[in-house]
């Protein structure tokens, strides 16, 4: 797939337009001073900003002529420049009377010489206003009650904040406004339709009210303050694509006029609203108050624009989606712009351009946490990236846009035909759709682009109609729509010219099993954009964020079967979790524990110090689908592993599906690898095709490195000739102890008493368990055998196979003691011992479980207790086999083997080694 440009309008293009406008426009007043207020936040920030361009622009434009009006410094009292500080307070900042009080205090405490404060509507009010229109035009009478609610909200707030004449004036205006609105909404109701300008007029009232209340309150505190209806000042031209372009010249002229009438040092201005050149009220579109503040900042050549909101600054990712996101101290204009364009709604995308041309920094601050310094968005200084955070300066942040669809126009007839792209995007433009990203393969075989989901139907229809002939003639093969997509954008100015960034990005996505549908990288290299399935988006965001920012590997785990082994594993995890986190950056979180009857689920990770009690107290009825969904589906952590600690073939039958869904599987359960061959081969084929891991070291020899040794030999090109071993701790114990002192049945009974055997010792003596291990090793060595192909010499006498119980079996076993004693004696006479072994003969392509005799100096004869021993005879280890020996059973070592697999998984997923 080729990399192609993202369709974000070029910053440089916009900037040069703005600058040329500026050159034509000219300026009147030199800023009285460029010095910074000692107490303002900007004094901390100027370290990172360059002021030279700004100085140049402002001084260059002193005392000259604008738009035909003869002007001089003296005629214009508006003192532009660094003595102005602009603030913008978002809806949540003015969401209640208490919060408006708070805002007033911030304004009063700012000791800047001049202040202009842009204010949004109280939170939810703009939504309420849009809802009024919706209701009225669909002839729903409830608009009247909804309007009453708007009135009530503002009335109550005003009663809280104001008194006397101020209150009376505000309430009288509010009632007039509401009466006017009632009349307008009635007209809309009758017409069953609202024009755009009617709508813009209605929805802008929220800002008019909040600005008036705030201005009154500031005045009440003894500060001379005027409120500004920005429809009198900010003039914009609609662009036809739900956007508007400010007319800076005209706006500046109107600002001068406004200031002549209201020469205040503190101004509270409405956000969001503006007028067209014909003086028709309009808006800067949703969330446009940030843009209003930037426009005002640029008209005033302000020292800084502070955007107050409800978070500590711009985070490395949306903090609602990535709990580990960090606040960025600084961002370049380009980075901030890319972030906002790609969905970080902390800043409106159009906020940057107006201020960037004068190098005016934007500071994002949290009104609810004044101690947080916020994020400074400015031109990076020479030492721009000294403020490294996380993994380094290359990738700064991530953002996502949801509800997109991809459109793929494909066909061999497109190659080398000039005008195809123009025809495609012409058709898209005709339906007014907004193209967010484009990717074209260099073969010119297909053009793929993303549009908002709600626009895709119209786009597809337009394209099919535009290319009807080409489709009929086969020059185009299809116009395909891929719905339910999201964009994940990775932003960082320093990504430019840095090799390896995209490799790391795609690696992190691959490891989280996320399929990338399309890719674009602008040649500015400020962002890399990938399109993923909607449902994968948050997981993708978290995967890349943790890869670049935290360098921490976080794995969500589900433990199936918290019995002896599973329980021991959970205890080991509990004891080791903090060391893994602190020293190795591995964050293992158990999100679910399920037995056959009860399960315990968590969204953030179960407290392992109390998992047993919690399961009892909070456990719910076990449901495997719900369990898997909880562990994998909460999108909180990019990587999921299910650890099956049962010996249940029903659980093993789910592995294929889990792996297919990108869930890693780790298990000591032998059932999947020793089950039907076709299912085993299918599972392994899937494992090899994907980045999803399936580890099963503990299926043979518990914690002993048997599978990994075998895999190591095979992967490095050795040829396995034979694997032979004592794979059963129980049978190892029985034959190590059966040395003539006691009868065979006595030894078996003793093993049972010591807890070394299964409840029914026939499960061990039948050899089936050993046969399963043999088949696992045989298949790992490349042999395609079924379990039934393994020859088993069972130690359970034929006549005792049907004994009703283990106890009955043990009672009758002495009948066969003489036979076993003879075998032992014969061996002993020949200087040999009896051992019950599993054998994989790779050369003969067979496997067996059998009682064999070994010379007394053979390693198998030296065994003690319940140890396992496995010997690999290979082309390299031919004279002397490679031997692995050690305890091969028991909860601690088995759980340890599983734990090793979990850590191997973490390291495959990117944890440091
Ligand atoms: P306001 O009403 O103050 O304009 P917004 O809701 O428009 O506030 O924007 C602030 C919100 O943006 C935050 O509450 C946060 O949830 C969201 N947001 C999304 N992405 C980011 C990000 N990268 N950094 C900070 N906030 C973000
Ligand atoms: N009040 C407007 C809106 O909600 C503008 C803003 O708050 O930025 O869209
Ligand atoms: Mg906002």
What does this structure look like?
40% of the residues lie in helices and 20% in strands. It is an alpha/beta fold and 913 residues long. It folds into four domains: 84-309, 3-Layer(aba) Sandwich (Carbamate kinase); 395-549, 2-Layer Sandwich (VC0802-like); 553-701 and 901-909, NAD(P)-binding Rossmann-like Domain (Rossmann fold, 3-Layer(aba) Sandwich); 706-888, Dihydrodipicolinate Reductase, domain 2. The strands form six sheets. It has an eight-stranded mixed beta sheet with strand order 3-6-2-1-9-11-12-10, with helices on both faces. The longest helix has 28 residues, at 164-191. The chain is elongated and about 120 Å long. The relative contact order is 0.07. Mean pLDDT is 87; it is low at 1-74 and 384-392. Adenosine-5'-diphosphate is lined by residues 90-92, 120, 287, 309-311, 314-315, 317-320, 344-346.
Protein topology:
Layout (H helix, E strand, L loop, with lengths): L10 H15 L16 H4 L6 H9 L23 E6 L7 H13 L4 E6 L5 H13 L5 H19 L2 H28 L4 H8 L1 H16 L5 E3 L7 E3 L5 E3 L1 H14 L4 E5 L2 E3 L5 E3 L5 H12 L3 E6 L20 E3 H9 L10 H5 L5 E5 L8 E4 L18 E14 L9 H11 L6 E4 L5 E7 H14 L1 H5 L5 E14 L9 H11 L4 E6 L5 E7 L3 H14 L2 E8 L3 H21 L1 E9 L3 E4 L9 H8 L1 E2 L2 H10 L5 E6 L4 H4 L2 H6 L3 E3 L4 H4 L2 H13 L4 E2 L11 H9 L4 E7 L2 H9 L6 H10 L8 H4 L2 H13 L10 E2 L13 H7 L4 H13 L2 E10 L4 E10 L11 E8 L7 E6 L3 H18 L5
Parallel strand pairs: 1-2, 1-9, 2-6, 3-6, 9-11, 10-12, 19-20, 19-23, 23-24, 24-25, 27-29
Antiparallel strand pairs: 4-5, 7-8, 11-12, 13-15, 13-16, 14-15, 16-18, 17-18, 20-21, 21-22, 26-28, 26-30, 28-29, 30-31
Helix pairs in contact: 4-6, 4-9, 5-6, 5-7, 6-7, 7-9, 14-15, 17-18, 19-33, 27-28
This protein binds adenosine-5'-diphosphate, aspartic acid (ASP) and magnesium ion.
The site of aspartic acid has 12 residues, from loops.
């Amino acid at each position: 797939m080729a990399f192609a440009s993202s369709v974000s309008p070029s910053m440089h293009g916009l900037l040069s337009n703005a600058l040329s406008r500026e050159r034509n426009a000219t300026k009147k007043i030199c800023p009285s001073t460029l010095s910074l207020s000692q107490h303002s936040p900007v004094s901390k920030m100027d370290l990172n900003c360059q002021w030279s361009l700004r100085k140049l622009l402002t001084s260059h434009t002193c005392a000259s002529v604008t738009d035909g009006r003869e002007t001089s410094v003296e005629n214009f009292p508006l003192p532009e420049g660094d003595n102005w500080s602009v603030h913008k307070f978002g809806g949540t900042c003015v969401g209640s009377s208490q919060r408006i009080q708070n805002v007033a205090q911030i304004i009063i405490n700012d000791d800047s010489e001049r202040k202009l404060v842009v204010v949004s509507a109280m939170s939810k009010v703009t939504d309420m206003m849009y809802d009024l229109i919706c209701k009225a035009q669909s002839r729903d009478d409830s608009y009247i009650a909804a309007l009453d609610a708007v009135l009530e909200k503002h009335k109550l707030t005003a009663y809280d904040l104001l008194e006397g004449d101020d209150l009376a004036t505000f309430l009288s205006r509010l009632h007039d406004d509401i009466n006017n609105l009632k009349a307008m909404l009635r007209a809309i109701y009758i017409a069953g339709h609202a024009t755009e300008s009617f709508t813009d007029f209605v929805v802008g009232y929220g800002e008019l009210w909040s600005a008036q209340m705030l201005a009154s309150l500031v005045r009440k505190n003894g500060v001379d303050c005027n409120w500004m209806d920005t429809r009198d000042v900010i003039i914009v031209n609609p662009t036809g694509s739900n956007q508007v372009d400010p007319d800076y010249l005209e706006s500046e002229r109107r600002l001068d006029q406004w200031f002549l009438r209201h020469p205040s040092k503190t101004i509270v201005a409405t956000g969001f609203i503006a007028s067209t050149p014909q003086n028709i009220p309009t808006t800067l579109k949703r969330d446009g108050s940030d843009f209003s503040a930037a426009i005002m900042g640029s008209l005033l050549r302000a020292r800084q624009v502070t955007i107050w909101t409800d978070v500590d600054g711009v985070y490395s990712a949306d903090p609602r989606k990535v709990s580990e996101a960090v606040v960025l101290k600084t961002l370049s204009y380009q980075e901030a712009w890319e972030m906002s364009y790609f969905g970080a709604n902390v800043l409106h995308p159009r906020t940057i351009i107006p201020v960037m041309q004068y190098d005016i920094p934007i500071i994002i601050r949290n009104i609810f946490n004044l101690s947080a310094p916020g994020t400074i968005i400015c031109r990076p200084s020479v030492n721009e990236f000294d403020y490294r955070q996380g993994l380094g300066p290359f990738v700064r942040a991530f953002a996502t846009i949801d509800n997109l669809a991809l459109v793929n126009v494909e066909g061999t007839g497109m190659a080398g035909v000039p005008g195809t792209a123009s025809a495609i995007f012409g058709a898209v433009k005709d339906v007014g759709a907004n193209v967010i990203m484009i990717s074209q393969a260099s073969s010119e075989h297909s053009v793929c682009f993303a549009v908002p989901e709600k626009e895709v139907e119209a786009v597809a229809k337009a394209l099919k109609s535009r290319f009807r002939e080409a489709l009929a003639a086969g020059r185009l093969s299809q116009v395909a729509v891929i719905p339910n997509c999201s964009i994940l954008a990775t932003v960082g100015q320093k990504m430019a010219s840095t090799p390896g960034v995209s490799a790391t990005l795609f690696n992190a996505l691959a490891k989280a099993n996320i399929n990338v549908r399309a890719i674009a990288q602008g040649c500015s290299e400020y962002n890399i954009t990938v399109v993923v399935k909607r449902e994968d988006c948050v997981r993708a965001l978290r995967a890349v964020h943790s890869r670049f920012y935290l360098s921490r590997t976080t794995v969500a785990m589900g433990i199936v079967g918290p019995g002896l082994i599973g329980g021991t594993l959970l205890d080991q995890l509990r004891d080791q979790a903090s060391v893994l986190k602190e020293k190795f950056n591995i964050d293992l979180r158990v999100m679910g524990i399920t037995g056959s009857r009860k399960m315990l689920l968590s969204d953030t990770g179960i407290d392992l110090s109390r998992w047993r009690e919690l399961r009892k107290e909070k456990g719910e009825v076990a449901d495997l689908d719900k369990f898997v969904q909880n562990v994998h589906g909460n999108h909180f952590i990019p990587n999921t592993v299910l650890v099956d600690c049962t010996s249940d073939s029903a659980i093993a039958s789910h592995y294929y599906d889990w792996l297919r869904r990108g869930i890693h599987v780790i298990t000591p359960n032998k059932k999947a690898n020793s089950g039907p061959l076709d299912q085993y081969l299918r599972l392994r084929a899937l494992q090899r095709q994907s980045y999803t891991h399936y580890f099963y070291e503990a299926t043979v020899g518990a914690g002993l490195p048997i599978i990994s040794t075998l895999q190591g030999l095979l992967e490095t090109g050795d040829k396995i000739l034979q694997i032979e071993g004592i794979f059963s701790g129980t049978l190892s114990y029985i034959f190590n102890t059966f040395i003539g002192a006691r009868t065979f049945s006595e030894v078996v009974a003793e093993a049972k008493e010591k807890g070394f055997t299964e409840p029914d010792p026939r499960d061990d003596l039948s050899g089936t368990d050993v046969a399963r291990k043999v088949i696992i090793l045989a298949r790992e060595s490349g042999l395609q055998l079924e379990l039934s192909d393994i020859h088993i010499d069972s130690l359970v006498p034929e006549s005792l196979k049907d004994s009703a119980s283990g106890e009955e079996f043990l009672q009758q076993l002495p009948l066969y003691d003489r036979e076993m004693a003879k075998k032992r004696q014969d061996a002993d006479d020949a200087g040999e011992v009896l051992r019950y072994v599993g054998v994989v003969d790779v050369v003969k392509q067979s496997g067996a479980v059998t009682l064999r005799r070994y010379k007394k100096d053979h390693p198998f004869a030296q065994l003690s207790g319940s140890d396992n021993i496995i010997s690999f005879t290979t082309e390299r280890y031919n004279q002397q086999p490679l031997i692995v020996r050690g305890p091969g059973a028991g909860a601690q070592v088995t759980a340890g083997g599983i734990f090793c697999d979990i850590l191997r998984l973490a390291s495959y997923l990117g944890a440091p080694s």
